[in-house]
Amino acid sequence: MKYLAKDDSKCIQCGACESICSKTYFKEDNPEKSCIQINKEDTPEINVCNQCGECIDICPVMAIKRDKLGVVRIDKKICVGCFMCVGFCPQLSMRQHDDYIEPFKCIACGLCAKECPTEAIYIAEKSDEEAKEMPLDKVFNK
Amino acid sequence: MNIKNMKENHKLLAEYKYELGEIDKGYTNRTLYVNISDNTINSKPVTEMMKEKFVGGKGFGLWYLWNATTPTTRWDDSENEIIIAGGPACGITQYAGTGKSLVCSISPLTDIPIDSNVGGYFGPLLKFSGWDALEIQGKSDKDIIVYIDGNNGIVTIEEAPLEAYDAHILGEQLTEMFADNEEDKRNVAVVTAGTGAEHSRFGILNFTFYDQRRKTTRLKQAGRGGIGTVFRNKKLKALIVKFSNVKGDLNNTFEQSIINKTGIKYHKEIHDLDHLQNNMRKIGTANIIEVMDAYDLLPVMNFQYGSHPDTEKIKSTVFIEKYLTQGVQDGCWYGCSMACAKAADNFLLKTGPYKGHRVTVDGPEYENAAGLGANCAIFDPEAILELNFYCDTYGIDTISFGTATAFAMECYERGIINKEITEGLELNFGNFYSSVELLHQMSKGEGFGTVVGQGVNRMKKLFVEKYGANEEFLFDIGMEQKGLEYSEYGSKESLAQQGGYGLTNKGPQHDEAWLIFMDMVNNQIPTFEDKAEALHYYPMFRTWFGLYGFCKLPWNDIVPADNKYTDEPAKVPEHVQNYLDVVYGVTGRKLSVDDMIKESERVYNFQRIFNIRMGKGLRKDDRIPYRSMGPVTKEEYESRQERYDTQLREKIGYAPEGKTTEEKMAALREYRENQYEKLIDAVYKRRGWNSNGVPTLKHLKYLNLELPELMEVIKDLQ
């Protein structure tokens, strides 16, 4: 499955990724509205969704699904804005901003990877076995 | 199931069109009034006075009920109402436990107002459809449904002759009937009762929510006090609401950001700590079965004992490992990360009309495991699940059924009633097949089941009058007060919890105060004044949840990691502040803890005066059965002899040596009954009531609740 891979040691905290992300999805240059977020401490840390999919089973209305490339996506028309996915994200990579009633997340579009001057982030593939959602058909035998 | 045919056989009795409107800071400012005697439907304004004095939820329900009824109104009179109201916070999605409805009516068990809180989607969808409350009055002569189409602004009353009565089928039928497609099913919420609600006094209302993952309709219960019995007596088959556009901001809150922030903080707390604390996400309230047993608090054999070696067979891990599907999002409203509404899937039924069916059983809650299980000495998880299923689908309260059956079993074991009276049922403790047969009889309206279905209070009278039972003994062992059956905690060794049950408005239900651990285990409230303070604060604090549309469980079924270092860990101060923050976010009201308590006190005192108006709100009505205070029988005394002997010696100065058990029991009883009276004095004083349990005029003035109609009821009782 497709995801945005990262190498914290290469990050120079320039913020170019946050800028392109927020401008692309929210028409505003604002790191708080970026799906990828870089810390401000001395040791750089890149925080972004690894597409594990734990949020899929948390969503009460099944608004979060994995697409055919393996990317976890929120259907905002269905989402009821409970933000449980934000509280339960093991990576703390599900985002919320008070300007919107739905959360948002990285969909591994790769735009930030193209902007990154040090190749600290890049689109990669990993095994589908790392997908964590429950197989509902098997669980409920329906 | 031929849904099309069922729908074609509906006969339209009334149709009402309304403007959809918009919610303003948690209020729609309107109530939907439906009279099913003359088929009139109206919109009533929610006034500023109502919001200021009664807030919403249970406050609105009691206010409407007060205005609809007279001191002589009984449960089956046409003017009796069923009111369903959420509250201003009901329907927000960001904080756990915000989809609650409060249901009020005059109870067939108690003849006074009952209030029962319930999850499911009805309350929130009712509000999004434009209504703070639904007020139903009158009686129909044919089976009807009331349908609220919140997308198009239409309310109809329809005859519905063909649909089923039992909740697990009727919920599915009506969800299927009113949803456009599979995805739309979660936008339909149904309120039903069941066949058993018609033939017993402790009928419940089932509130549905559609479980998209299980693809089935789940049931949550407004369980206490027989509101389902009122519902079926009115010939209501179901209430349905449909609203298809739920979003997280429909309450048009005053400040959404503080709700988001508080909600996410709480979700993180559940994520990080639940598995280290109560395991609510895995087992729900049933996590305490073995805890209650360990502390000698689990009701066993009609509350005679507090533990049993066989509890091992029904402990929480048995349900987790063998029956309850794990890892599914089980909240009964969106945003409930506590997700305690557990379910056993593909459960094979062994008895009754659905024998051989595989069903989803909601539960078991702790109360069900304790009441249907331990209290009847039925220590079998599959028996508990089957009883739980049939109680729900027949529309029977698991708590009242459990306590009433335990009482009947004890009477049977003691020879007070016999096989002739039970029409062949061997009602020994532990007999699952007899217990479940009582349920099937309630469903069909036949046999001894209909006697048990009258509740403990009426069984006591019947056994005395018809079968010559000893009245005093039955008063001692019959676990009811004001006509309502006790919920499932042993209170013998906790004076504070005796008050927690006995000094309630609706009857002995633990939702007002659960003080056993503070009192008995942690010894945090040693004096009468301490206990009285707790019996003031907690009932008021807990009442508050029902005014706003909150669930109580997220308050203290998990606590912040640093809670134990706070001044008052039992109050969970950070969570109290969460609620104040959320209410500020919704309504713009900046409340302190004192304001919060005062809001509740108004409604609480109003309910007390309502009880007085109905003839059951004075000190004499707060008397409790001795089984809830101490050992009634020799066996009970001897099962805890060391504890009781020590108490006689140390607290009463009575030397137990050389005394018979009967002598010691008498001395202990005199002491304990006296303690309860002293507790009443202290609690009444703290609550601003006189020694007869009547709110004083001075206290009403303090509460700004000097409504003439209330003063009229209490002025001569000062």
Name some characteristics of this structure.
heterodimer, A: 142 residues, alpha+beta, two-stranded antiparallel sheet, 5 helices, 6 strands, B: 718 residues, Aldehyde Ferredoxin Oxidoreductase,  A, domain 1, Aldehyde Ferredoxin Oxidoreductase Protein, subunit A, domain 2, Aldehyde Ferredoxin Oxidoreductase Protein, subunit A, domain 3, 3 domains, seven-stranded mixed beta sheet, six-stranded mixed beta sheet, 29 helices
Description:
The complex is a heterodimer of chains A (142) and B (718). By secondary structure, chain A is of the alpha+beta class. Chain A has a single domain (2-140), classed as Alpha-Beta Plaits (2-Layer Sandwich). Chain A contains 5 helices and 6 strands, in the order βαββαββααβα. In chain A, the strands form 3 sheets. Chain A has a two-stranded antiparallel ribbon with strand order 1-6. In chain A, strands 2-3 form a two-stranded antiparallel ribbon. In chain A, strands 4-5 form a two-stranded antiparallel ribbon. In chain A, strand 4 (64-66) and strand 5 (72-74) form a beta hairpin. Chain A starts with a strand and ends with a helix. The model of chain A has no long low-confidence stretch (mean pLDDT 95). Chain B is α+β, with helices and mostly antiparallel strands. Chain B has 3 domains: 3-242, Aldehyde ferredoxin oxidoreductase, N-terminal domain (Aldehyde Ferredoxin Oxidoreductase,  A, domain 1, 4-Layer Sandwich); 256-485, Aldehyde Ferredoxin Oxidoreductase Protein, subunit A, domain 2; 495-717, Aldehyde Ferredoxin Oxidoreductase Protein, subunit A, domain 3 (Orthogonal Bundle). Helix content of chain B is 41%, strand content 13%. Chain B has 29 helices and 17 strands. Chain B has a 7-stranded mixed β-sheet with strand order 1-9-8-13-10-11-12. In chain B, strands 3-2-7-4-5-6 form a 6-stranded mixed β-sheet, with helices on both faces. In chain B, helix 3 runs parallel beside helix 24, helix 12 packs parallel to helix 14 and helix 19 (495-502) crosses helix 27. The longest helix of chain B is centred in the C-terminal third of the chain and has 27 residues, at 661-687. Chain B is globular, with a radius of gyration of 24 Å.
